[in-house]
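Late entry, written up from scratch paper. The run itself happened at the end of the previous shift, but nothing got recorded in the book at the time, so transcribing now.
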Amino acid sequence: MKFTIATIAFASQLFSTAFAANYHQVGLFKLVQDFSPVVFRNNILAHAAVGKVFNLPTILTSSAETGPNGPLPKEITDMHPNAPLIKRNGEVDAWDNPEFRAAVEATGKKQIILGGVTTDVCTVFLALSLRAAGYDVWANHEASGTFDEKVATAANDRMRDAGVHLVSTFAVVTDLMRDWRHVPGAAEIIPYFDEYLPSYGYLARAHGGAVENGTLIPGEAALL
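Output as recorded:
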């Protein structure tokens, strides 16, 4: 099996994956209404960081970035300084751009993980094109945003009907890892979760604190 990251896209079952990151442009970010700005910013950075943590082939792309769409967030381009950045001049579907398509094909991967703005156009169009081209596609629904939840639901249903896997960031990370004893494993993934999934990070902190400094209080022993 093979993977790649576009829009940011990547995949596992996930053993040969590429990660494609595009469509998370700063201007389009303003269209997202199905997540709060704070939550969605964290989501797209968490998505982008997956490629770095797992050392996946990564492709970045933007569309008409000199116009209102704007560039990709600096945090993403800084995270992947050596990744190809395909600056599309007009193609709405990244797969219609020969340079982007060639970059994906050059990875030799057949599984793609992706997310983008908007879900119903950028993510859906690329996901369906990749499926038609024979790729196994994993769409991170937390890293895709659109005008409202109704539009997002319809877009996700359309992808699911085409055989696209709809997944969360947590599912992507654990699927790529597969075993806490692997590398990347606990040593790499717990710090990732601490930064991007603080509920899990604080779970790990609580456990670490209890092991190093904790004592049982009345009533707890009976629970163990």
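Confidence is low (pLDDT under 50) at residues 1-15.
(Scratch paper discarded after transcription.)
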